[in-house]
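Dissemination and training. As part of the outreach component of the grant, students in the summer workshop were shown how a complex can be specified as a set of sequence lines and then modelled as a single object. The example used during the hands-on session is reproduced here so that future cohorts can follow it. Participants entered these lines:
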Amino acid sequence: MKKNKGKAGSTAEKEFVFEFRAGKHNCVLKVPLQFAVQENINDLHGRLMLLHKIPCYIENALRTSLISYIEKETILDYDREAELALQRLTTGEVDVNQLTTAWTRSYVETTLEHARPEEPSWDEDFADVYHELIHSPASDTLLNLEHNYFVSISELISERDMEIKKLQERQAAEMDKVMHELGNTLSDQDVNTVASQHFDAQQVLENKWANELKQVTGIQKQEYQEWVIKLHQDLQKSNNSSKINEEIKVQPSQLSELADSGARMFEEQPQLEESFTIHLGAQLKTMHNLRLVRADVLDFCKHRRHGSSGAKLRRLQTALSLYSSTLCGLVLLVDNRVNSYSGIKRDFATVAKECTDFHFPCLEKQLEEVQQVVLYARAQRSSKQKDQPEISRNGGDDKSKNVERNPSNILPGEFYISRHSNLSEVHVVFHLCVDDNVRSGNITARDPAIMGLRNILKVCCTHDITTITVPLLLVHDMSEEMTIPWCLKRAELVFKCVKGFMMEMASWDGGISRTVQFLVPKSISEEMFYQLSNMLPQIFRVSSTLTLTSKH
Amino acid sequence: MKPLKDAQLGAFTFFASALPHDVCGSNGLPLTPNSIKILGRFQLLKTLTHPRLCQYVDISRGKHERLIVVAEHYESNLSDFQKHGKTTSPQKVLQLAYEVLEGLEFMNKHGMVHRALSPHNVLMDCKGNVKLAKFGLYHMTDHGADVDFPIGYPSYLAPEVIAQGSFHPSDPAHDEGPLPSGPKTDVWSLGVLLFELCTGRRLLQNIDIAKRLKFILTLGCMDDIVTVLAEEHGCLDLIKDLPENVLELLRKCLTFRPSKRPTPAELLRDLVFSDVSCFYTSFQKPVSLFSSSLRCAHLELPEDISDLCKDDGDDDYLSERAIDEVYHLWCLAGGDLEKELTNKEIIQSKPPVCTLSNFVLEDGESFGQGRDRSFLLDDTTVTLSLCQLRNRLKDVAGEAYYPLLEDEQSSLPQSNSSNELSSTVTLPLIIRERDTEYQLIRIILFDRLLKAYPYKKNLVWKEARVDIPPLVRGLAWAALLGIEGDIQAKYESIDKDTPIPTDRQIEVDIPRCHQYDELLSSPQGHVKFRRVLKAWVVSHPDLVYWQGLDSLCAPFLYLNFNNEALAYACMSAFIPKYLYNFFLKDNSHVIQEYLTVFSQMIAFHDPELSNHLNEIGFIPDLYAIPWFLTMFTHVFPLHKIFHLWDTLLLGNSSFPFCIGVAILQQLRDRLLANGFNECILLFSDLPEIDIERCVHESINLFCWTPKSTTYRQHAQPPKGSGDSSFGKTATYYSSDYQDTPKTDLSREPLALCDLKAEVSPRISAEDLIDLCELSLAGPTKRTKAGRPKIVAVDIRSVEDFNRGHISGSINIPFNTTFSPDGELLQCPATGLLQNYRGRVIVVISHAMKSAAMFATHLVKVNLLRVCVLDGGINKMKPTGLLTVPSPQI
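and obtained this result:
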């Protein structure tokens, strides 16, 4: 009730007066009471009896009179407040229209009865249909179809790569020739012209392919969605499911052949990984799984080529859980620009394009949307900051300058989210913005990157992402300055922070068991990896192995 | 709680509002989620029982701040009257109004306001009586501050409520919550409701909300609101035809100015009800178990007792059980609230992947996420079908619902399925607690026994030894602890408000005590925690608050959340029994003695482990103080404490030693394999302990422990004999060693340093006589398997031994084992003792020193259960129980 205390008039001290006779004496008991009375009246009564040594034959009389006094006064208080509110209306202090629209808004926005009817959403309907199908015998067919599409896209891509490579080879040869003639028959300008011609040619070719890919994916997506809806309708219509099953089953045999023939060798890098089961909490313990993995971050996104064992299972697993409440997420460290032009962003975009996303908009579109949302968020923030200028944290000036320079850029610790149905082990990608600071050795638990991790885990809680992959060292690639002590220090920090966040999460979601995968770059040595895996059980409490012993 | 009768169970759901991002409380700890605050406040509603109110039964938290409330429910409500567009007879209107007001008055007395009165929240039971539903919503949401939606329905809001404004959470202009409404707002809502009944029309049905509210506010300028309303709805004739008292009632309810409007209590006594009020008697609260008044004072038996036995032809015994029992069983029989609500499409959830936001700022605020429709309020109440439960219980015979308590022989009532039940008893506790039929039988049995408490105290003890059904655990524990008397009055008379120096420490400890639990982490839980702890500290001036008392309080508070007095009484009874003087300002002598006895117990039961721990210096002082000071409540989560204490409360004050040894034994392998540092680490965060195994082990250990071995000088002194006069005859295991009358043969106090020097515990001559069945009076009553087997080892010289010894004892002279200067000699005799492995070995000698030394040696070679006769052979001499072997011929 603290909030009411600030208001004038809602707390007031009043005096309770009680008279009684003790023998020949007339006694008067006066008690100052704070209104509104928060404490238990029986306690108050007991305390008065004790404190003033009131004879016990008065006990019941005192109680009744105390209760009725408090009741009466409380009613009076309520009345006064109520009358005041009505008065404010009549005096025009409060605008009636504003008041009633506020009421209307709160009813419309929070109750189903008064809410505007919902427009049907294609996405959600499709989600329901797909979720139902993937959990039916038709799942196999769905997967095969998806795979089929994937194969045709990857054929297209390899064709593209081939053509671009040819062009580049040709151009290189041409350039060699030109360079050879440089100074003899050709001038610098001529070289430049040739170079720019080459560049243009490359651009044209790439654009052509990009368009082609876009078109194919568009067609695939539409075909696929129509097919899924149709299949669902057919299934619903016919009660004779066996017939349908046969209908569906025709395709797989063809597909499996395809899959076999297309078996290209895909060299899988030896992944190092180690798993731990841990307990968190002092008394009530919650169990979680941790995994330390040495791999490339994009390995979680890339589809293994056909033939590699488990590829299909992994695909099925991802598809099954797409609309469930056990999602998988991945943290990708990006710079402050929302696009896919360079570095890991570009690599990721390439992987995301390798396979058509049949459920969500393509990455480009999602990023466009994010850009708009970022601008909107900035506008909201700055208007809010104008309202409350005093609430600017230290370093706030620095940041706001940065934002003013380019509001579409994001800041370290902020992240945007993209959704995918076409990656091998991941549904949700958190693009966490980090700056060069993470390369230095002295970041603390208050670093924006770490706070970003915390917020990511929070989103995991609210949106049922039960498996999350985190780059342990907060970098994707190793470089010179990342020495062994640097790695150990960084790993310890991230382990400890994640442990803290996980304990916090237990209070947010009631301790649902989750899996956290810590990812270390591929270039790390085996020795280093085992050093890190030795560190983990020292920080987390690893659950005891279950020993089965016979009773003695 | 009242019986189910013709009621049904209903559930409705809503969301608590989400907390702002990254805001900390004033104490630096994270804020309590709103759903937990609501859950804590809800508990009080369970205690509100009145014939005009729907009984609240339970609340549960779902994912993402969802709350599901379970309450008594009826299918028919007042909106049924309105559906047909017919008017209701004036007589009926008066009756309904009176009954609603009865309910409101009762609520007001408990400091609550309905605020959400509307036709579909006024339910009707089969007899057509009013039952108010959702009356607790306003209370549990802290006047609507913890939820996003406004409480109440637009047409029925009182003008002052509208004027005070709605406080939409997204509205940044209002940081403060809404002002609380008074009882008079309900009277207005009732007025609108009655008006609708009289005219058969819904108020301003076709106008949008804003205009509707504006219209209500403009009523302030009118003289005669009832007439204006009637004109607006074109039903002036109907109103004019109403009898004067109904019209008067409407006018009184629809008084615009709150100060002129009567409260429900005033209205109830108004003359308009003079025709109706005579049909109603005021509600008497049933007397609770612990009170000064007589529970059966007003019981009237009919002249002919057989009237009671008349069969109504009604076999529905389940509906005679209390609502919370039925709900508990419903859950056991596979009831799932979320599933029921999802089936009725009240809970609609979107796949989480579709509702992700696009962008999140560094402080955690997210953007780009549309408003999710599935979070909107749909407060339809769904009836929970009892079919599955009834089906499950269809084989339970009617007699099972009314077990006879006279027969002390058989605990379980005879029924068709009694064979099944008796086989259930042997199943693990976890399974029994989830067995619907078994729980039904147990709950009924305990319910009846507890109603007859303290008269049936013995039977409660007996049944508690089988198990305690979770639903009645609070009261069952109180019975086991022997709580009696008017605890409420006693609790109220303790001053819990005046600040005391301990407050600060209590304030620090509470937010760290079993906070994973929803109840105990709620603000209400904290308040109650504080009050019970303070009451204990204030009422025990010779004792002080030590950290750990909070943990000790937690299980009692959790079980008796709505009955602080009982929680306090249980705690006050528990502490002297198991933790006598542990909370002294200087408790070191008590704790030191306790720990020494504990380490003797480790040596007694597990010499190998004891040797190892002593070797690495890992003494009980380093780990066991929080165990015993909090009776394990600091180390285990609540659900494990319950199972542990179910047994602990049946044992005597030395039972905790056995639990301690049992815990160590569960970690035995790891302890034996590790050195000091690893052991410290291991215990700093105790690994998971299998509690059922722990309980079994400790019972086993307890049976092998002669009572006098755990003798403590600083234990609770024997109680006065008058104390145990009522009912209970103490059994061997539940009574304390200290309680048995002290004789010459009992153990004598020992200085702490001497006690510490001895590795093995001492046994009293009395126990020895008892266990060897030497008593002259012939074999004692207790002869069965439960008692430990014993072997007495006489270490005096052969000559002394021949002059007289305890019959059945074996002679291993001390000087054959030890050289005169105390060195160990080659000893064939210890090999002899291996033959008696498993028995309790009692070492007897002249001098205690040599006996202790001998015992130490036996422990060194890992012999189990070694103890020393207190006082040596000299104690035995006066008893005349020593025998002289007949000279060999």
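The first strand of chain B starts at residue 8 and ends at 15. Students were then asked to discuss how this feature might be tested experimentally.
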